[in-house]
Amino acid sequence: MTMPTRIRAARSVAVLALCAASCMAWGQTVKITPLGSNTGELCGRDRAMVIEDPSGLRLLYDPGQTLTGANDARVGKIDVILVSHAHGDHIGDRTLKAVGTGACDNAETVANFATMAGEIAAARNSALVVMQQMGLFLGRKIETLRGKPTGACPEKAGEVTTPLAAPCLATTHTGGTRKFRMPNAANAVEITMVTAAHDNTIPRELLHEGTRKLLDADNMSLTLGPPSGYVVRFSNGLVAYLSGDTGMHAEMKSVVGDYYKANLMVLNLGATAVTMQEAAHIANDLVRPASVIATHVNETATVNGKLRPGSRTAEFTALVTARPVYPAISGKTLEFNGAGACVAGCD
Length: 347
Ligand SMILES: [Zn+2]
Prior knowledge:
Elements: H1 3-27, E1 30-34, E2 38-39, E3 49-52, E4 58-61, E5 80-82, H2 88-92, E6 94-96, E7 100-101, E8 109-111, H3 116-124, E9 127-129, H4 132-146, E10 160-161, E11 168-169, E12 177-181, E13 189-195, H5 209-218, E14 228-233, E15 239-242, H6 251-259, E16 264-268, H7 276-287, E17 291-295, E18 302-303, E19 306-307, H8 312-319, E20 325-327, E21 334-336, E22 342-344
Parallel strand pairs: 2-7, 4-5, 5-9, 9-11, 10-12, 15-16, 16-17, 17-20
Antiparallel strand pairs: 1-3, 1-21, 3-4, 6-8, 12-13, 13-14, 14-15, 18-19, 21-22
């Protein structure tokens, strides 16, 4: 071995050693499984997603109206629940009667006064990462189900260790971050609340009669603080932006794109929030992630698992450039590496 070769070899050993911990994490994947009304399709009411960190920590994002209850076999262990806002299609004011297969338009639901977020938190001992007022409201729903008050999540050195022994509240405000870590995990999962430009009114049907009657007199509603989106930094380096319901706003670029450098975006395509041109601008020019998942489509977006020509979702997909768009197909798990590239389930 000549001298320069030996130096080069030594250098690569050093680089490999430096890289060992972080590069190993980089290659691990975050698994995202949408749980909609109809397996194999992206249907109008679909919102819920289970997101699993490589450490085994499992999040449920916006339970909504497409789960059959706390015992929905698709849900499993849930350490943390994220609820972007109080609207019924996110907090879960209805329960799906049964998971369908095939066509989107036959999902039947029944009213759920306890809320799906509350029901699952109570049954799975989940932490709720929500705005303060949302936490107070959901905490009471959980208390009613369990017969015990819902406390704040136990924190040590700024982190919550999961799994938890009881449901708990990890509330914060816009810009606030909560950290969760599985025992022995090298890195915590960090969840930051970010701005959403929307509304946060609780459906009156979820309020007790006394409150409802007071509001009825003046035809008013209750708003539980501001709505939110989330930036979640996973232990493999993936930075996911979960938009919540929102119109286009400047912080998508300055905060989510430039500062947090989100490399995966789960974008809600509600027609009262964005046009498909605006949604594409969010992807192409504001957030600029490596990959996009399209959800909250309020239409039958797929037929036999393929984008329906003429759908808004197909229009959005065609307008997004330089990055793939994956429709959030119910029951289909997409796996993302630390760089935001889909490495399994992406066909
Ligand atoms: Zn919505």
